[in-house]
Design a protein that fits this description.
By secondary structure, the chain is an all-alpha fold. The chain has two domains: 71 residues; 64 residues, no CATH class. 76% of the residues lie in helices and 0% in strands.
Amino acid sequence: MGHEMGHYVLNHIYKGTVMLGVVIVIGFAFVNWAMLFALKRWGERWQVKDITDVAVLPLAVIAFSIYFFIMTPVTNTISRTMEFEADMYGLNAARQPDGEANVDLLLGEYRKMDPGPMEEFIFYDHPSGRTRITAAMRWKAEHPETASPEELARQVFK
C-alpha cells in the first residue's frame, strides 16, 4: 500500500506523462524525418508523392515501431526509476523492510530475480527482485530502530 501511495505522493502520474510525452514528441520528429528520407529515396518507386498520401501509413507504422523499439530501454528506465522511488517511499511509510523483501520474493515466482545488468536495463520496467531486496535490506541496516525486539536481542548477545 505504501508503494502505491508513493506513486501518488511523488506525482509519478504527472512526471511519467510529461516524460513519455517528450519521448512521443521526439518520436513524431523521428517519424517525420524517416518518412521524408524514405520518400526522397524510394518515393518514386513506391509511387508515393509526399507525406500526406495515405499510402505512406505503413511506412509511418514501421518508423514508429522502430523508434519505440529503440526507445524501450529509455522508457523502461523512466518506469524503473519511478518504481524504485515508490519502493523507498513505501519502506519509509510502512517501516517494514522484511515485509518488502518477502513480497519481492513472491514476485520472483513469475520473473527472474537476478538478471544481468544489461538484461535489466533493456527489458525490465520494474527493479529486479534482487535490486528491491538489496534496497530493503540496506534500508533496514540504516534504520536499526525498526528491528524487532527478538532481533535486537540476537544482535546484543552475539
